[in-house]
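Lab notebook, page 48
Experiment: co-folding of the full assembly
Goal: obtain a model of how the components sit together before planning crosslinking
Operator: M.T.
Materials (sequences as entered):
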Amino acid sequence: MFIINCPYCGERDQTEFTCHGEAHIARPDNPSEISDEEWGRYLFFRENPKGTHFERWTHDHGCRRWFNVMRDTVTDQIIKTYKMGEAKPEISNE
Amino acid sequence: MKYSLYNLVKNSFSYHENWEKAWSSPDLKPEYDVVIVGGGGHGLGTAYYLAKEFGVKNIAVLEKGWIGGGNTGRNTTIIRSNYLWDESAALYNHAVNLWEGLSSELNFNVMFSQRGLFHLAHSVHDMQEITRRGYSNYLNGIDAEILNQDQVAKKIPHMNVNGRYPVLGALLQRRAGTARHDAVAWGYARAAENLGVDIIQNCEVKGIDISNGKVVGLQTTKGAVKVDKVGLVPAGHSSVLANMAGFSLPINSVPLQALVSEPVKPILDCVIMSNSVHVYVSQSDKGELVVGAGSDAYNSYSQRGSFDMIEHMMAPLVELFPIFSRLKMLRSWGGIVDVTPDRSPIIGKTPVKDLFINCGWGTGGFKATPGSAHVFAETVFRGEPNDIAAPFSLERHFSGALVDEAAAAAVAH
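Observation: model returned without errors.
Model output:
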């Protein structure tokens, strides 16, 4: 994982980037109506998979933009990087 | 066989070739009253206290690799209890109290060395933080001394207190120190087996059988086993095991690295920690400097951290101790730590009946080993956490009663 392909800048060294945890977590539309448990799950509970992980990164020392990364947490290999707002890629079972 | 001077002399006549094995490798039985998943210090300790204090007879510890081969053998062996919040102080100080008698209790020298630990303060803010925490420690009956720059410089003469990272003072806990991490796993394993616990190595749990919301069995690489109660003590793989049981956890698993130098003559007789510039260092009895720092910020199960983290911990080390700058580093390694949002562990019940969990120790589990094992054994036996363990329930993430040691800045382990 030493090189990360920023969707805006291209390939750069990993030290230019910061990881900000799991991606594709939607804030509940109705915080005042949901239970404490549902709110706690939204705030704190994470997939933390051993395998394919979807996560948010920022290019701090470059364009400073946010984007998503699809990465294998066993090998640290990056499978794909894509812009915020793009659909979550499918996990292939090769 | 008891380890004693008598037996040492006796065995010397046979050239030390007839010592019994410290623990055996029994076969997995088809049924157990309690199965502990995870053969690190916390898991082996849990089995030991279940057998010793609660009289449970039929216990197995399942370990997917070899005992003590995970985070128990990968940490920097620092032990302390000077945490900010009352809940943490009670838990970690319970551990320190047990550490003090552990070698004689287990009849195994865990080399617990209370050499004192200095938490460095590099700024006015740091001084305020250690002062606040020091007074909080006083109130909780934990030894703490707030030192100024001169006092620190006198105690640690080779440290550069006026360099790029000036040292304005330190919080000293004299009861803190280090222990031999492998010996902790071996000592608990040997003592547990003497009480009838089966320690099954190379046995990975592949599935958790649940019937009507209660755990009834485990599927392992050595076959199926029926169980009455299960305690999960898996560290880095907490989420993987929780998923097998159908629930998720507020945990991210990240790499944490450490490294050791070539051995040198005694030069550092205490433990140094700095949260602000992020390094901690002590000298092992072999003479190696043991150095650690922060974890990587991304999830990984690779047991390998990034190189820039090594640079990030070595730079402040040589800045604080210019004398170390020519030392060669011999080995570096990584462990996978399960980090919770508040940097406090999760001990207690799960959504599955009779399935208990002890995880989320993140970057600082080693220091808590005996305390964690002790309170978790009681949790598994009674089915309810005791007063020390109760604040660390999974439910705190719903109620909001977090034990926030992350913001308390006591967490650079």
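Interpretation: Chain A touches chain B through 28 residues (CB under 8 Å).
Next step: discuss with group before ordering constructs.
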